[in-house]
Amino acid sequence: MGVTLDLSRATKPAAPVKPNLCGLTRKGLVETLIAADVVPAPKARMRANQMWRWIHHYGVTDFEAMTDIAKETRAVLAEAFSLARPEIVERQVSKDGTRKWLIRMAPGIEVETVYIPDVGRAGALCVSSQVGCTLNCTFCHTGTQALVRNLTAAEIVAQVQVARDDLEEWPSPKEDRRLSNIVFMGMGEPLYNLDNVADAIDIIADGEGIAISRRRITVSTSGVVPELEALGNRTQAMLAISLHATNDPLRDVLVPLNKKYPIAQLIEGIRAYPGLSNARRVTFEYVMLKGVNDSPAEAHALLKLLKGVPAKINLIPFNPWPGTDYVCSDWGAIETFAAILNRAGYASPIRTPRGRDILAACGQLKSESEKVRASVRRKAATPPEVLDSPAA
Are 99 and 72 within one domain? Predict the structure, then answer.
């Protein structure tokens, strides 16, 4: 008896994923073209320079747009490589102009990126360096999520490209930019992913591409002291420190990494940061927690701690999240704290909470959007009669 197999519904093997060229450094781009044997080695550097401007200055996502490259070569490149952007799962715009994108880098790998407009056309993009976080800072909602993995340099650069697509800012303008600054203050600890962060900064700062000055790129760390010098030497980026306390017992609670690298060791590392000067000050971030770290005595202790360090101090009103025991300091307490710092000569702006209505404020990234989307999915999966019942 013969047996006939119906293969019409058989699952076809997934097409191989083409390497994406958007996140390669200049050196990496040259090496990749040579290794794939799509460009002769003697011409690889010249071809890479042409492609670099198309990818990072003009923001193209199709090799056919590279009109100064022969059509036959463009076809070969398109067959071997990709310039595709990652999937935008969700886009939200706050009433204050803040924009937030939930970006899917790969199945199960999602990060949130936030654009914060400033006065005029300028604005900062807050990028993530990891999916999740290991630091467990007790005031930060993002820190309640387990680390999934580091982001690649390509995935970090992709966040900038997605934002510039949305802001319609290609080709790269020299002046009057809407996206003028980059801050590594999203999900994760950048210094635990320094290689990829450094490569991403090299790409973002390249003068023939996106061309955002290294002095307009700030990397925020909770205090991974052994990597501070390497960060400065490799990136020449501005440094920000997630401080939040002036003594070890309190910082051990707020920022558990302090148990490994206590405040005295952290301050010593900051003083040695390459390029630190009055023109290149370190920014200290200080979240204002009612009854925890917001007293005048704490302000004076902060002045004593930072004496002699070229510094700016950002005071951040706490952004509450479900389940937290912390409360934002009263506005009067924040203003009193700021006045003490200002009288001592430190710039200490009070950071206006931005994007709270779309869960894009400091410390609110990723987890809340996951909750909201999960709730929507649950409601969509619930039969209408259940939703309409008195018990629903």
Answer: no
Torsion of CA 135, 137, 138, 142, to 10 degrees: -80
**Tell me, what CATH number does 66's domain have?**
1.10.150
Q: Which pair of structure tokens corresponds to residue 243? A: 């401080």
Strand arrangement, sheet containing 87-93: 87-93, 99-106, 109-117, 123-126, 181-184, 217-221, 238-242, 282-288, 311-317
In terms of residue numbers, what domain contains 60? 26-80
| Residues that are catalytic | 112, 362
User: Could you tell me if 259 and 148 lie in one domain?
Assistant: yes
* Angle of CA points 273, 278, 280, to nearest 5°: 50
Percentage of the chain beyond pLDDT 90 is 73
Q: Which residue has the tokens 């701690």?
A: 305
Tokens of 218: 């700030």
CA dist 125 and 148 (Å) reads 22
Mean pLDDT over each residue of the chain, to the nearest integer: 88
Contact, 39 vs 29, CB < 8 A? no
Judgement on whether residues 139 and 171 belong to the same structural domain of the protein: yes
pTM above 0.70, yes or no: yes
pLDDT, tens only, 273-282: 999 999 999 9
Contacts of 357 (CB under 8 A, 6+ apart): 94, 95, 96
